[in-house]
Amino acid sequence: MKKHDPQSQGRGVSRRSLLKAGVAMAGMATLGTALPLRAQSRGISVTCWGGAYETAVRQAFAEPFAKETGIAVTLVNNADLTRMKVQVDSGNVSWDVFDSIGPQIMAGARQGLWAPIDAGIVDTGKLLQPAGKDHVGTYSYAGGIAYDPRKFPDGKHPTTFAELWDLKRFPGRRGLRSRASENLEMALLADGVPPAQLYPLDVERAFKSMDRIKPAVRKWIETTPETVTLLTSNEIDFSYTYLSRVLPAQRAGSSVAMSMRQTLNSLEYLAVPKGGKNIQNAMRYVAFCLRPDRQAAFCEQVEFSPNVAGAVELASADARRRMPDMKSPDAIIINDAWWGEHYDKLQRRFTEWLLV
């Protein structure tokens, strides 16, 4: 009988241990939890708004970021706060970066949906409008009244929100967004509230003013590209839309124009949802979007004003001329802090009002 060899037993145990360790490492690599290099290359999804905005985001941010880092970016044209909340509450987060307007971002912050900004990755020191603890402003944009200049060659189209509400003087089919923010501001301005005295919003007065225009609203618009395409397809006569949609449409040959006499100006934001599987890569994307060169590249394509110091100087003179005028006394800057406290309640009320 062969004698027991302790040295041989030791070798056998060592081999078995290595095999077990190898299996464990393979399993952990599959889950993406043990190999940092694999985790770093994991792709992220970012909400978006479609149309020219999506094209600019893809070319200025998503594709250069993927090329530089190896992290693929999928753009999802659905910045829906309700769906985002369901994801976070369920622990099944599929959107890694939420790109949206102030009222939604602030409401999400109040609900605790966003992860704290990682100061070790994201430099917020050069922002013109300061960052929150869990969100950053990226650029400002202008919203106003659009129309087809071929249908109104003599200039008989509304240029202010009071004129948009004047159904007798300016008859025609209106298109407005299906959300409370911006509509309530326009309603109060149309009812004679001075721009400097707009906030806090007189909600009851705003809804009464909305009652006046409601019969003329042919379409309550959910997706941003439709604010222009419904005009160009002659489904509406006047639309609330954005300069960043109108000018690219003009360059593409569409007959559309926008009055700049009175505009609502807002800040766009980025936030990283809590509970995401790719938070570090999401933070890297946010940091990339705040680089002055990337902000300038974005604003070359669409009509936004950068929120990062040094970015405007990198943009061309033509791009700077297209940026919204924030100094006009008729222009309004949306109060995102106010909306952060009231968005959920007023959006529910606005949705119910639409159904009446």
User: C-alpha Rg, in Å?
Assistant: 25 Å
Helical region count? 15
Elements, N to C (H/E): HHEHEHEHEHEHHEHEHEEHHEHHEH
CATH class of the largest domain: Alpha Beta
Helix content: 40-55%
Number of domains: 2
Low-confidence stretches: 1-40
Which structural class do you get from the secondary structure elements?
Answer: alpha/beta
General form: globular
CATH fold call of the largest domain? D-Maltodextrin-Binding Protein, domain 2
Explain how this protein is built.
The chain is of the alpha/beta class and 356 residues long. The protein folds into 2 domains: 44-140 and 267-325, Periplasmic binding protein-like II (D-Maltodextrin-Binding Protein, domain 2, 3-Layer(aba) Sandwich); 142-266 and 346-355, Periplasmic binding protein-like II (D-Maltodextrin-Binding Protein, domain 2). 46% of the residues lie in helices and 15% in strands. It is built from 15 helices and 11 strands. The protein has helices at residues 6-31, 36-40, 51-69, 81-90, 102-110, 161-164, 180-190, 203-213, 226-232, 243-251, 279-289, 292-301, 311-314, 317-322, 336-355, and strands at 44-47, 73-76, 98-101, 136-147, 174-177, 217-221, 238-242, 257-258, 264-271, 305-306, 332-333. Helix 3 runs antiparallel to helix 12 (292-301) and helix 5 (102-110) packs across helix 15 (336-355). It starts with 5 loop residues before the first helix and ends with a helix. It comes from Bordetella flabilis.
